[in-house]
Specification:
The structure holds two protein chains of two kinds.
Chain A lengths: L1 E8 L1 H6 L2 H20 L3 E6 L7 E6 L2 E6 L8 E9 L3 H8 L9 E6 L14
Antiparallel strand pairs in A: 1-5, 1-6, 2-5, 3-4
Chain B lengths: L1 H30 L2 H22 L5 H23 L5 H15 L5 H10 L6 H12 L4 H7 L4 H17 L9 H23 L6 H21 L5 H14 L25 H16 L5 H14 L8 H14 L3 H15 L1 H14 L6 H13 L3 H14 L3 H22 L1
Classes of the chains: A alpha+beta, B mainly alpha.
Chain lengths: 125, 423
């Protein structure tokens, strides 16, 4: 089963970290990626730039609108993600609880919905 | 035939009462699906009603029913698979896993697994409670709705959502390793205590359903203690606490349904059997090195339970236990209870001083019992205007009828006292 761990932090809190603390967080995150890879959990993980760099798109009636900023203004911002492979939710929680940014922000663990490629004769929803 | 048939159907009913939850727990593990397992339990008992009068009651009825249940479930899956135009692969693979897992000597653990799934931290608290009462205790959704003053469809919806999450997020049916089990157990104990408190609280609702909740909470804790791979002192402490609180049930409300304060209760109506059992469990929990919040609260309840009267209570010991509780589980409510105990030990003025400090700190401003406690101390100190003001504030915040009736009576007494003095 695949789980997406969505990492939220208050950007102000990240900005308040000293250079040394920030570098340590990055180093810890890279080290944990390696640990997850070796344990067979790692599928992908990235940290994101600030929400100030975000652009939100919508397509309505074939017309594209692009606006500045994140989808929603919230207290905590999406700052990174880990896509992992885990046997079940308990294992996913165990692995996600050691994501270093969980110490600064919060991690939402969401099971990935598999989009089934349907055979032509299969009429299931 | 009819005679034998009757005894056998009585036997089936008895087994249903005592074993159906256990069989359900095992079938959930084997089938990996709550609804399929529930249907399988019903089908297994239906099969027993037909087969047992003909073939006799099997030596191990539980194993027979588990086995019948899983065959019925495989049938159901095969039927569904045919309709869905998918070949029998699913049914076949399930059959093999069932054959393998049914061998495992894990049947007793299934009930612990079921409790842990129902109280999984990924489920919302009201769903944890509803699911535990429905799946582990076997209460109907109607009974749960009555006890929690909500409607059966609301309860049913909570249960359906929780089951969907268990399936979709893949919450496993497992007993985690000891280190993790300890954290998970904390949640289970909390859910049980919430169930107990709902049954014990003076809020309105049918008293029969209410007392069923306290009984279920106590029964569940006994079961949990029996199932745990390693003894847990807080589980023992919680059992003690609930027994000691339950022992006062008959004395804690007047015939008119008004709350009777601990100091005014008729102690001859306290249940001595429950007190003896509760006290024994407190001793057991205190003897471990791991003394937690439930054990400390139970120890406080035990001192009350064994005291012949409020005046003859060892308040010094109680204040000391609150000091410990404050360290283990710091909260303004614990501080409030400590202030009440200090009032009994060092006098009402000292208690009031502490309580005013707590109220000034702000967190208890909207807690009805804080204002009621302050009112009571002011009343005893003859500061009637302040007492009246605090009772009114408490009444504003209090929803539970029996408590409200008590406070309204106190207010009438204060008014009567004032007017008689004027006269």
């Amino acid at each position: 089963m695949k789980y997406l761990c969505i990492v939220y932090t208050e950007e102000a809190k990240l900005a308040a970290l000293s250079d040394k603390e920030f570098e340590q967080l990055d180093a810890d995150s890279l080290a944990y990626d390696k640990e997850m890879r070796e344990a067979g959990h790692f599928l992908a993980a990235e940290a994101l730039q600030s929400v100030q760099t975000a652009t939100t798109l919508r397509v309505r009636q074939n017309k594209l609108s692009a606006t500045d900023g994140p989808f929603a203004e919230t207290k905590e911002q999406l700052c990174g993600f880990v896509l992992m492979q885990a046997e079940d939710l308990n294992e996913a929680i165990r692995v996600a609880s050691k994501i270093p940014s969980a110490r600064v922000g919060s991690v939402e663990v969401r099971p990935v919905r598999q989009l089934a490629e349907k055979e032509p004769w299969d009429k299931r929803g | 035939m009819t005679d034998a048939g009757n005894t056998i159907s009585e036997k089936v009913e008895e087994i249903y009462r005592t074993e159906s939850r256990r069989i359900l727990a095992t079938l959930i593990r084997l089938l990996g699906d709550f609804d399929l397992a529930e249907e399988a339990v019903q089908n297994a008992f239906a099969a027993a009603v037909v087969a047992w009068p003909r073939d006799g009651v099997p030596d191990n009825p539980r194993a027979w029913l588990v086995s019948a249940g899983r065959f019925k479930a495989v049938d159901t899956l095969r039927r569904r698979a045919r309709f869905a135009a998918v070949q029998n692969e699913l049914g076949k693979s399930l059959e093999t896993t069932i054959e393998e897992t049914a061998q495992a000597p894990e049947l007793e653990d299934d009930r612990l697994r079921l409790i842990l799934v129902c109280c999984h931290p990924a489920l919302p608290p009201d769903a944890q409670i509803a699911l535990t009462l429905r799946e582990v205790c076997g209460l109907t959704t109607e009974e749960i709705a009555r006890a929690f003053l909500t409607t059966a469809p609301t309860v049913a919806q909570r249960i359906v959502r929780a089951k969907n999450k268990i399936r979709d997020a893949k919450i496993p049916y497992e007993v985690p390793e000891l280190a993790e089990l300890h954290d998970r157990l904390e949640i289970v104990l909390h859910v049980i205590y919430l169930i107990f408190n709902e049954g014990y609280s003076a809020s309105s609702g049918e008293s029969l359903t209410k007392s069923k909740l306290t009984q279920e909470a106590i029964r569940l804790t006994r079961l949990l203690i029996a199932l745990l791979p390693k003894p847990d002192s807080e589980a023992t402490g919680l059992l003690a606490l609930m027994l000691l609180q339950e022992s006062r049930r008959a004395a804690r409300a007047s015939a008119g349904g008004e709350v009777v304060l601990l100091e005014d209760q008729d102690r001859s109506r306290w249940n001595r059997e429950q007190i003896a059992e509760g006290v024994a469990f407190v001793r057991k929990a205190l003897a471990t090195r791991n003394v937690g919040a439930y054990t400390l609260q139970a120890a406080i309840a035990a001192i009350h339970a064994e005291a012949p009267s409020s005046a003859a209570t060892d308040w010094n010991e109680i204040v000391g236990l609150y000091d410990l509780l404050k360290r283990v589980d710091p909260s303004p409510v614990v501080e409030l209870n400590r202030a009440v105990a200090v009032a009994m030990r060092d006098g009402d003025a000292e208690g009031l001083r502490l309580m005013d400090e707590l109220l000034a700190a702000g967190e208890l401003q909207n807690y009805s019992f804080a204002h009621a406690g302050r009112a009571e101390l002011c009343r005893r100190l003859g500061r009637n205007d302040e007492a009246r003001e605090s009772y009114l504030r408490a009444l504003d915040l209090m929803e539970q009828e029996p408590e409200r009736r008590f406070m309204q009576r106190r207010l009438r007494e204060l008014d009567a006292g004032d007017s008689s003095r004027q006269a």
